Task: structure prediction
Amino acid sequence: MRKYWRLLRDRRGMPTTLFHGVGGSRVLPLNRWIDAEIKTVHDGSKDTATPYLSGFHVMESFDDLMKFTNRFRKIEDLYMVLVDVGGEIRDKEHSPSNILLAERMKIRTKQWKERVKVISTR
Result:
C-alpha cells in the first residue's frame, strides 16, 4: 500500500469522483478498498482522443496536483486528498501532467477530514 494525492469533490460531506462513477455511483465509501473498473476509455471525444486503460487518477506530488487543479473552472467543492493506493499503478502516458492510474484505492476517514481545499491560483 502506498499513499498518493487525488482530486475529489465534496457532496454533502462525502467524497465523490470528478466525472465517472464506480459501481453506478459517484459517491465513494470511506475506509473500504474500491476497485477501479478497468476498461478502454478516452479523454474527450472518441474521434480525437487517445484510448487508454482506465484507473483511479492519482499523483505522487502535492505540488504536481496543485498545478493540475488550474485546469478546472469549478473549484468550489474541489479538494486534494491523500489516499491509500494498492494493486497495479501505471503511467497515464499521453497526459501532459504526471498522472498515474491506480487499480485500487481507499479513502480513510482521517484522510478525508484532512483534505485540502482547492483555491484558485490563476
